[in-house]
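Why show two proteins at once? Because comparison is the fastest way to build intuition. When a single record is shown, students tend to memorize it. When two are placed side by side, the eye starts asking what differs. So, the first record is below.
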Amino acid sequence: MTTWTDLVNADAFTEQGLVVTNPATGNVLATLRDMSDSEVNAIIAEADLARVAWASLTAKSRAAKLKAWNDLILANQEKLAQLITAECGKPLAEARGEVAYGASFLEWFAEEAKRVYGDVIPAHAEGKQILVLKQPIGTAAAITPWNFPLAMITRKAGPALAAGCSMVLKPAEATPLTALALETLAQRAGIPAPLFRVITTTQPAHVGGILCASDTIRKLSFTGSTAVGKILMRQSADTMKKLSFELGGNAPFIVFDDADINAAVDGAMVSKYRNAGQTCVCVNRFLVQDSVYDDFVAKLTERVSAMKVGNGAEEGVTVGPLINQAALDKVEKLMTDACEKGAKIAAGGHRVDGDGAFYAPTVLTEVTPEMAIFSNEIFGPVATVVRFNTEEEAIAIANATEYGLAAYFYTQNLGRSWRVMQALEYGMVGVNEGIISTEVAPFGGVKHSGLGREGSKYGIDEYLEIKYCLVGGLT
């Protein structure tokens, strides 16, 4: 069997420190060094020193290094997929997809490195020229989550390095091994070690505070909860960092009466149950028009009931464990509250025996806004189904949240497509599509779901500063 151990440098391991476990089995995968404050500060200083020479390279030279990193990730796809599954529990098929998706950001930003264009603006007076330059912001830091332990890193490190910045990374304490494997592959690709460094720690909040308080770090990118994002924003205020945050969501999935119901169910399955419902763009609320409600629920329930729960490394498993016991307890608490207030279980609704935090894929009907599960991000394999009558009502329900990350709807009416697409207060909208993530499109939310964009041609702008130069004396 292919193993991932050669992808992590031996000096990362220790006998006491950060313990990494497999959420499906509870087995310890590794114990990693718990870096001290002095080590963290040294990494930041070395990154800031190294970025000067890196930024002076041609964009084509930086692009070649990023492309080599992309190629090494793809060459090690199976090892990385097994590592992702071991760390966060998602089925191997999904993990393989994440490796390819993560690598795509390096390929994309390798190409975008060569397209950082400035401007020449017509001058306001004779004998002058106005130039606009785009320059790397400097040393960047990133804090990434456990649910996409590879792709959330490359989506940030790719544009940073392409722009000429260095990056210091603090991965989630549940999934640091994937980050360390990426660090190894980056060095093998010829990217100087100080430019992309991984911090391992048992004190993530403390290290986050160090990153926020550092004047050396000029940019912070974070993917995680809205509550933590607000803390990081407050902690970064004194150093006036440039920030980009991808935070929590409460995604609606609207099924109108003119939708292709079979297509809507297909979209529901991939959008809701991927990674056991543990993604920021997972559907939280299915809003289904009354006349097609029963048909949609029946077809969704049939599909959900056939899903196989278990260790993601096992053949045929489509739903892995939740990341830990606390996540399982949260789902159970939300389910209990909903059922006490009148919701009905059409499928699942219970724990699944095993060493890990397994919960059965669930369909919960007759959900109403009074239930906590309606407004809280579930982060578990539970589909909540809500009735509505009119288009206006669906839009109002969908927008009645502080979050605005992703939204989905299904209709075969072209006019309705445009009306609803424009009316939804979300940073991303899938129309007759359940999967919206791609390296070529801008990923990000509005309202309490964050600020800034990742991926696409807009993603590299997050790591650039605009400099205006007025040149006189030209007559």
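Second record. Ask yourself what differs from the first in the token line.
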Amino acid sequence: MTQAFDAAAQQDLLESRASTAVELARQLGADSCEVGASVDQGIGISVRLGEVESVELSRDQGFAVTVYVGARKGSASSSDAGDASIRAAVEKAMAIATHTGEDPAAGLADARLMATTFPDLDVHHPWALSTEDAIELALACESAGRDVSGISQSEGASLSSGEGVRVYANSHGFLGSQRGSRHSLSCMLIAEDEKGMQRDYDYSSVRDPRQLASPQAIGRQAAERTLRRLGARRPATGRMPVLFDPQLASGLIGHLMGAIAGGALYREASFLCGRLDDSLFPQWFSLQERPLERGAMSSSPFDNDGVQTRDNLFIDQGRLASYMLSAYSARRLGMETTGNAGGARNLRLKAPLQSREELLAKMDRGVVVTELMGQGVNSVTGDYSRGAAGFWVENGEIQYPIEEFTIAGSLQAMFEGLIGVGDDTDTRGSIHTGSWLVGEMTIAGG
């Protein structure tokens, strides 16, 4: 790997530099100040067809200062946390603040909301991985996939491993920091038949390298996913149910969270403006945030405003129970922050789960979507239209792969028409969910 990364020493250094910047801003006349600093180090390996394509050893650092002079705000950043760079950033932020317009909503989050509890969230698991060992793991992953009969080519395998520290400080006297790690391994393969080429992939992403799926399992799964796409046809056009694979279902939750984010709401750029307390989903469906879950991918005791994070219930028995707000967006809306500056952390469903077989039986005739293409989601209207690939279902059973079709509807109708959630929960990201079976959508195929 690169030079040794001493996370504890980096944490102490960034905390000291952040405190220095806050004090300097006060001396230069700022009414209040906040500082965000981070440093990350890692290794990235890419291999293809049994050969090493790239080895990337990275070290990134960022230091951002925001000052408030009355209702005026100025921000500046640097990739260097040295004394001279910090002073230059603070002076630049102060200069900018003299030229900006007044914004009554600007300023730090309320001091009474600052985090005071910092539990060990078990999110820092460094991996003493040499470059040679990393290459060996990536090669083993690709080899396991290429050894499967029917695989004709490879887009390669990639391994990344990194750790870092982030620090946030402000002039309320708050100083919070956290160490973290993230490790991943992926493989993408190609198969070909008389109808053309197909590709697919698999991956594993974890905080603790001991929980990483084996290279062989990832490679074989990538091969299996690729081979099952051979012989794809275009589906019939019509209105029918759609089963979204877990990864794609998490994307639907992502669209929901974007629509209830404070920034979209105060700009009136969301189809869910003014919908607080309305029923959006079936009564059996709830969605909660658990930012203090040990070992999870987005756990943190404080948000980007320094506010203490907490469990939030965004959807309560189908009802929109809460927006997702930072201190700034809350002020713009005349509300209080939900501790979500920087987004939601660890979203979890509360719903009765069903097997894939049960969901397919309920579908009877329709499509399973395993890949989506394009950006056809309008957050203002909720209109939804995406290119897709997947499988055709008849009599509750998968019949053959399909491609080159479009699914269309509206997010509101898709949420309201949610029929069931699968027990095939994908836990690799911040959003944990299984497959979603959604009622009728428009399928445009051949």
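One difference worth noting in the second protein: The longest strand covers residues 151-170.
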